[in-house]
Write a structure and sequence with these properties.
- One of its GO terms (molecular function) is adenine/guanine mispair binding.
- Its cofactor is [4Fe-4S] cluster.
- Strands 1, 2, 3, 4, 5, 6 and 7 form a 7-stranded mixed β-sheet that branches.
- The mean pLDDT is about 95.
- This protein is of the alpha+beta class.
- It starts with a helix and ends in a 5-residue tail after the last helix.
- The protein is built from 15 helices and 7 strands.
- Helix content is about 45%, strand content about 15%.
- Bound molecules: iron/sulfur cluster.
- The site of iron/sulfur cluster has 15 residues, from α10 and α13.
Length: about 350
């Protein structure tokens, strides 16, 4: 029988999905797709990828773009630091590498946003370096394949697997080897109900041979995440409302949000809103009724966001804790990149204001 690497590569040859970044694997496309695919499903990524390369067909085009245009195209993909880093790195590539990704793995490793995963993926797929990628799919496949019972959340497991996989990738075409491992994880060795009978690794798989596919990989329970009550104000003045652009060093940096903040325990929402809006923009406001309540989950916490209709009372809007504040109308807001929770609020605002005949 053929060895497992040969079977894996044969399987990949026959079963790999056609993906836009596989049809044309120029380094820029590989880089962009790998960054988009972090924490995100392939089906979600494809339309984003296609829109992105239409708008920014190469590194110099991305570098020359306005950050707001980049974030707008990223809107809804989440983990916005990925977009900010892509943009920053494109500018650095233009300044230092003639607008191309360097074909040298050490130079890749030094680029902003290039951690071990992205370096291995771009290095192997675009430039043929024999560096194994260890993403969530690969962790799951090889914990089963080699019968490893270490908690999958342990960071040392990644290093361990990378070391164990290195001699195998060194003897194979690196791009196909890495993509095949990830593809088996996505299509066959799925988290629930792995399709062992369709798997090229079955003959050597410890989990399959010992009936432990449901036990492996071992994954400790996640700590419960905190839940915050957030209030936001849609502060109207002369048919426009106020938006603040979050600072670059903040979570959701560069995106525009309705001003507001976290409630203290037992505090009335109107009190929180008046305090937060004043502290963040210098405005005094009148707090009205809630437009909507939105539940949203981030990686490390959840929020319940309640958005209130407010009216400006006094003061000149200032960016006291953000990069910029602007009065924007419902007709203008389409070009502003907003986080998902604020988009949901915006829908409720539009619906209400339309019903009242107030534009939009
Ligand atoms: S045989 Fe089953 S458990 Fe083992 S790698 Fe293949 S799909 Fe996963």
């Amino acid at each position: 029988m053929k060895d497992w690497v040969t079977r894996l590569l044969d399987w990949f040859e026959r079963h790999q999905r056609r993906l836009p970044w596989r049809d044309d694997c120029r380094p820029y496309y590989v880089w962009l797709s790998e960054v988009m695919l972090q924490q995100t499903q392939v089906d979600t990524v494809i339309p984003y990828f296609e829109r992105f390369i239409r708008a920014f067909p190469d590194v110099p085009a991305l570098a020359a773009a306005d950050q707001q245009a980049v974030l707008k195209l990223w809107e809804g993909l989440g983990y916005y630091s990925r977009a900010r880093n892509l943009h920053k790195t494109a500018q650095l590539l233009v300044a230092q590498h003639d607008g191309e990704l360097p074909g040298d793995i050490e130079a890749l490793r030094r680029l902003p946003g290039f951690g071990p995963y992205t370096t291995a993926a771009v290095g192997s797929i675009a430039f043929g370096y024999p560096v194994p990628v260890v993403d969530g799919n690969v962790l799951r496949v090889f914990c089963r394949f080699w019968g490893i019972a270490t908690d999958i959340r342990q960071p040392r497991l990644r290093t361990e697997l990378q070391t164990r996989l290195t001699p195998f990738i060194a003897a194979a075409p690196p791009s196909a080897f890495n993509q095949a491992m990830m593809e088996v994880g996505a299509l066959v060795c799925r988290p629930q109900a792995p399709r062992c009978n369709a798997c090229p690794l079955q003959a050597d798989c410890v989990a399959f041979q010992t009936g432990r596919t449901a036990e492996l990989p071992v994954k400790s329970a996640r700590k419960p995440v905190p839940h915050h009550q957030i209030v936001a104000g849609i502060v109207w003045k002369d048919e426009k409302f106020l938006l603040a652009r979050r600072r670059q060093d903040q979570m959701l940096g560069g995106l525009w949000v309705f001003p507001g903040g976290k409630s203290k325990p037992g505090e009335a929402p109107a009190t929180t809103l008046r305090r937060e809006v004043h502290a963040k923009t210098g405005l005094r406001i009148r707090v009205g009724f809630p437009y909507c309540r939105v539940e949203h989950g981030y990686t490390h916490f959840k929020i319940t966001l309640t958005a209130y209709r407010c009216e400006w009372r006094s003061g000149e809007a200032k960016a006291l804790t953000s990069d910029e504040v602007r009065w924007v109308s419902l007709q203008e807001i389409g070009t502003y990149p907003l986080p998902k929770a604020n988009h949901k609020v915006l829908e409720a605002v539009r619906d209400y204001e339309r019903m009242q005949g107030n534009a939009g």
